Each structure stands twice: as C-alpha cells, then as structure tokens.
Amino acid sequence: MRLRYGVAAVLVGVLLAVPVGAARDAKPAAEVNAEGNAFTGGLKFDPAKVSVKVGQVVRWTNTDFLVPHTATEDHQLWNLTGTYGPPGIMGFGPGESRERVFEAGTQHYYCQVHPQQMHGVVAVPVALSVRKGSNGTRVLVMRWASRAPVKGEAFDVQVKRGGGKWTTFQRDTRSASAKLTSQGRKTTFSVRARLRDAKDASRATGWSPLATVSA
After folding, report:
1. Of 4, 32, 67, 141, which one is least surrounded by beta carbons within 10 A?
2. How does strand 41-46 pair with strand 30-37?
3. Cα 182 versus chain centre, distance
4. Ranges of CATH 2.60.40.10 domains, the chain
5. What is the distance between the alpha carbons of residues 109 and 79, in angstroms, rounded to a whole number?
6. What is the location of CATH 2.60.40.420 in the chain?
C-alpha cells in the first residue's frame, strides 16, 4: 500500500506539473543525465563527473519518466530545481533541463529528492595566459569566472610560485579576473580558486583543479 501511495503522489505531480524555464539553445560544454527513480532503480547522474572551462555551460536533463530531480551544490551555493512533483520533493520533471555557467572550483552537488543515491562533481580550473608587459616584464592573466558572483557569494584565489607554498592572492573578492606581473627568470605559477559564501568561508566549493603556467 505504501508503494502504491508513493506512485500515486508522484503521478499527481505529473498531472499538475508546469515546466519552468526552458534551457537555452546554446550547446553546452557538458551534458549530464539525471536518471532513475526509487521504484525502478538506476538513480544517478551520468556522467558523475564532468570537467569544463571557466564560462562554459553544463546542462542537466531529467531522463526519468516519473520523478523530479535537482542539481544542488553541497552548500546550497547554487540550486537547479523546479516545480514538478508533490510538495516537499519538487524538482525539474521528466524531459526538462536546467543549466548553469560555471566558475573555477571543484563543485560537488547532489539531488535534493534523492540525496543518498545521486551525487556529482563539476571540475573547473582557472584560465591562465601570459602576455608581454613593459620593460621586459611578463603579465600573468588569471580568470576564475566569466562574471561577478550572485549577491552574497564571493571568490577566494590562491597562487603558488614554483615549489613554494600556497598564498592568498585574493580573498572574498567579487572580481572575476586579475593580473600579476613577473620579472626576471621565469618560474612556474600555480593558481586555484573557489566559490564561497561571502560571510561564511566554511560554505565553499572545493579548490579548483591545479592550473599552471610559466611566466
């Protein structure tokens, strides 16, 4: 009886669902399927991990025929959801898609409807380039986002020279990029960044995959 009630409740959600926000036409850099349901199994994000560049789009599509799914960052820094399903377990419905433009970070996420079974990761390294500066200098250009974060969020950025230690380059910044000038003998610069809550640094994504360049 409990199983029948659960199916009936979800079917009511199917009948009452209203699609929210169609995905954009631009082709995303990565596609993730939100699959399965609690009755037939197969609950997962496929692929579970994707890697994209700063400013690229990841799109999630619900490929199940019955239940809602969400893609929600582990600290609620972003939440792709919808109005499909019964109250309390809503998400984007069968055939619906949600997408997001990504900044640097190792961003773990899960499905709020199926938090035990469905987890994924989006890995995004900082974009680095080197330009010639004046008087023999070299300019390291770092870009960790394509735009400022939403209100209440910020970025942390760290830099490491050669085999040295990580040092804070910018903390709690809303800037999406910065430059660093180098002179003399070339050295290897490593850069990493993360998205965080502006008031609570414990609510942050993981550091981005290592990005290195000689400058």
Report:
1. 4
2. antiparallel
3. 31
4. 127-214
5. 9
6. 2-123
CATH topology of domain 127-214: Immunoglobulin-like (2.60.40)
Mean pLDDT of the chain: 89
User: Could you read off the pLDDT of 180-203 as tens digits, one per residue?
Assistant: 998 888 899 999 999 999 999 999
Token pair for 188? 């290897």
Region for residue 95 given its phi and psi (left: phi exceeds 0; alpha: psi -120 to 50; beta: otherwise): left
Element (H, E) at 52: none
Name 206's bridge partners.
Answer: 106
Q: What is the CA radius of gyration of the chain?
A: 21
CATH level 3 topology of 2-123: Immunoglobulin-like (2.60.40)
Residue type, 10: V
Q: If residue 2 lies in a helix (H) or strand (E), which one and from where to where?
A: helix 2-16
Q: Which residue do the tokens 């390294």 mark?
A: 125
Please state, in angstroms and rounded to a whole number, the distance separating the CA atoms of residues 28 and 50.
Answer: 12
